[in-house]
């Protein structure tokens, strides 16, 4: 079976995009196809097109949306590395920027002058997003000069806006009703956390309350990963993300440390001063330190920044400007909350870049394991 | 620029294959294309099709051979990760199995019954190889059930034979004229090594003489990597691989530890008894522990096993059968030396598997850096 697919880079993620017409609609069959195509049963995804890291083992299925006012539906898949399974519970903002560019480049939406708006619905979470793709001159561009923290490579500029992101998964911006609260993790003293649902359900730990800083190196973050995973699993039922008796997964809630800004050096070796940003953030992606920050998490952090008691508000030392600047290992990611109503943002925007890397036909073994033809 | 390419798995390597007609013949221009296509300037090869590990950041350029009796020429490229450069000095046997399957699948050689022989010349080293591809029923197979140590995935069986492999790079099986000798590495006591040129130029360290075992875990090997790199750099000029004043590279000679067989557990969790194999081998690939063994190195180890004084002969405890069984982190790789003349093997064979993963058109930025279109 040869399945058409397009490899895109969206920001700091790589993602294979499949059009719905080429893959099974039934979720179980689709999962089998992705596991086989990626070589997902293997820890290094040797026998397939997977990239063997959480940020390069992603997929999305794209289709024209039946929803009025929405151009594109996409279903995001976090393809497991060595597990032979797919996580279906989260969204990926980086991939959404790739979806927006793909929609324009493949003619799924008409080009409208120098910028083309693509309205997208994420099937996993119900999130609605708007991608504003640079189509200068009324043309699709294969390459561009827009960069994002975490890579020096340029891409086509895509402004990504999350529309009314609060409460999409749980029904509430604050699933526990509190902007911040103490959380007892294992047998240690409680730590201060904010559990918010905006962009994605996220649990943010006040780093200082956990004897950490929020400005840890990726190496240091690896030693904190098991503990943060316990925080995730402790928060999940409190956020209403688990049915009773269900085992917690590793995709939601997202989890990370938040701290005060301090001078640090990015993974690309650039010096960042404390005054260059507002809060330090160190997130996990699945069970590994995120090299930058997932955009859905960035939305949650920025939205939490609007709430007076939250761990983000405290770390930032009070209210910030229009843009909240997040200090991540890869560099500073700026997030803009606008169109505020009752304290909730109607629009949360990040400036990103995307690039098509390859159009392919993937040889997919007919089951999760390779077979004789 | 959209460049056609095919992603193959050959054994435990992933490699993009380009046909010569689609890429520049001039080496500098070709290097620019590969660097741009792979995103090679970035340490995680985010902006391209590279796999960001030494065994998944490989390429080869394939063409019909003008040489009588040879079907296919291929030029191997070890695409640097984060360097923006390509190493051109080595061959890759795993990739050669992929080249053989590709040659059959793309119709570059005629199918001849249940097995199809593909004679290949490696442009980098002058090595001549024979791939015997399973074409049961006179058909090309997309999938197969043959496995190799290091992955549970099946592929199409490809028997790979190196023809007259001794001395291809330096002119001599033993570039220093000795089957084993003491080598002073840095300021420490000398260690016992064999420097052999068969398949590839390789320096093999008697693990015991270096207070090591040859059965180290990959984690342990990471701590030995800087030292082994020093061994490589010390051996390179003695093997005639460096012009005076030239800085040593990381592709040749290949370097590794050889020791006696002991019980161990493979990276896939399988138990291996000491009697299941003849010698322990732990190699580097570029500057990282090899998860298994490069086939060109396997040829060197097997050929050294024929030499009474070599570190391989000593570790094996004397002569072995037709097949020398190498205990690698991923499992046991068996190598057969045959057609012996004057003690040199005319044929060195390994049983491997390969699979086509994807046919693609790669969007290649026009220089090493992405550009506006």
From TrEMBL, chains A, B:
Domain of life per record: Bacteria
Keywords for the protein's UniProt record, in alphabetical order: Isomerase
Signal peptide: none
InterPro entries noted in UniProt: PrpF-like
Gene3D superfamilies per record: Diaminopimelate Epimerase, Chain A, domain 1 (3.10.310.10)
Family: Belongs to the PrpF family.
Protein name: PrpF domain-containing protein
Source species: Streptomyces luomodiensis
């Amino acid at each position: 079976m040869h399945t058409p697919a397009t490899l895109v880079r969206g920001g700091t993620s790589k993602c294979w995009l499949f059009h719905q017409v080429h893959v099974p609609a039934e979720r179980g069959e689709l999962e089998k196809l992705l596991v086989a195509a990626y070589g997902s049963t293997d820890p290094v995804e040797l026998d397939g097109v997977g990239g063997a890291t959480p940020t390069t083992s992603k997929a999305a299925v794209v289709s024209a949306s039946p929803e009025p006012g929405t151009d594109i539906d996409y279903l995001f898949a976090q393809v497991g590395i060595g597990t032979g399974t797919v996580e279906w519970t989260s969204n990926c903002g980086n991939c959404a920027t790739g979806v927006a560019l793909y929609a324009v480049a493949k003619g799924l939406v008409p080009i409208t002058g120098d910028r083309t708006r693509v309205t997208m619905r994420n099937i996993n979470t119900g999130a609605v997003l708007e991608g504003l793709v640079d189509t200068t001159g009324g043309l699709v561009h294969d390459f561009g000069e827009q960069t994002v923290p975490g890579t020096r490579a340029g891409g086509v500029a895509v402004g990504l806006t999350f529309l009314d992101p609060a409460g999409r998964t749980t029904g509430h911006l604050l699933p526990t009703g509190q902007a911040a609260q103490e959380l007892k993790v294992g047998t240690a003293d409680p730590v201060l956390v904010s559990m918010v649902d905006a962009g994605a359900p996220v649990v943010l730990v006040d780093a200082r309350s956990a004897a950490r800083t929020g400005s840890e190196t990726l190496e240091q973050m690896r030693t904190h990963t098991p503990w943060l995973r316990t925080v995730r699993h402790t928060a999940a039922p409190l956020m209403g993300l688990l049915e009773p008796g269900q085992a917690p997964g590793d995709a939601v809630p997202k989890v990370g440390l938040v701290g005060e800004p301090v001078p640090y050096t990015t993974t690309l070796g650039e010096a960042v001063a404390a005054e260059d940003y507002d809060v330090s953030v160190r997130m996990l992606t699945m069970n590994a330190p995120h090299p930058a920050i997932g955009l859905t998490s960035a939305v949650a952090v920025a939205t939490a920044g609007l709430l007076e008691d939250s761990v983000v508000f405290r770390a930032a030392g009070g209210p910030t400007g229009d843009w909240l600047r997040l200090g991540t290992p890869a560099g500073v990611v700026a997030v803009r909350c606008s169109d505020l109503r009752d304290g909730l943002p109607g629009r949360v925007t990040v400036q990103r870049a995307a690039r098509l890397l390859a159009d392919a036909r993937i040889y997919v073994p007919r089951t999760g394991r390779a077979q004789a033809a």
